Amino acid sequence: MDINAVNALPYEDFVNIFGNVVEKCPIITASVWSRRPFVSLPALEAAISEFIDSLPESEGILRCHPDLAGRDLQRGTLTLESREEQARAGLDSLNSAEASRMTRLNEEYKERFGFPFVICARMNDKANILRQLSERCQNERAVERARGIEEVKKICRLRLQGLVLTDAPNKL
């Protein structure tokens, strides 16, 4: 759909279609609906980013993310988007040593920071994800919080690009 079709969507349809561009946070999409019309896909993305940045406790959006290669992947309870992203990165085919290391590092990360490790899986492979998870466990909490939020925005951008055509200008 193009940006004109996005702008024409009723509230419920807008939230249903875009409700998971930020993992399990349809409230964000619901909140930006009233800012229509968007002149472009980047304008819609900017509205979502601004909303995220305005949250007094933006760590909440980090806590909505599942552990990578974690229990939800094994149980098949990930959102469709997360399942596809983790599979594309190879996280659904870890060998036993990789799976054990991922579990241990995920637990260490959550214990240290109080929220799950977030990385844009679509921009990484399993080896890079494991390396970054290990390295980022050493960061300060404020650094990791900011990094996690930037990763959420990358995920959001790619999910939006999968839903909205980028070359049709808005007819205001």
Task: Describe the protein's architecture and organization.
With 172 residues, the chain is mostly helical. It has a domain at 65-150: Orthogonal Bundle (UraD-like). 62% of the residues lie in helices and 0% in strands. α3 (26-32) packs across α4 and α4 (41-54) packs antiparallel against α10. The longest helix is centred in the C-terminal third of the chain and has 23 residues, at 141-163. The radius of gyration is 17 Å and the shape is globular.
Q: Topology as H/E string?
A: HHHHHHHHHH
Q: Mean of the pLDDT scores?
A: 94
CATH fold group of the domain at 65-150: UraD-like
The quaternary state of the protein chains shown equals single chain
Please report the distance between the alpha carbons of the first and last residues: 16 Å
SS content category: mainly alpha
CATH architectural name of the domain at 65-150? Orthogonal Bundle
> Which consecutive residue ranges, at least 5 long each, have pLDDT under 50?
none
- Report Rg: 17 Å
Report the biggest beta sheet as strand number plus sense, adding barrel if it closes.
none
Tell me, briefly, the overall form.
globular
Portion in beta strands: under 5%
Q: Which superfamily, in CATH terms, is the homologous superfamily of the domain at 65-150? A: Oxo-4-hydroxy-4-carboxy-5-ureidoimidazoline decarboxylase
What is the level 1 CATH name of the domain at 65-150? Mainly Alpha
Instruction: Please tally the β strands and state the result.
Output: 0
- Number of discrete helical segments: 10
How much helical structure, as a percent, in the residues? 55-70%
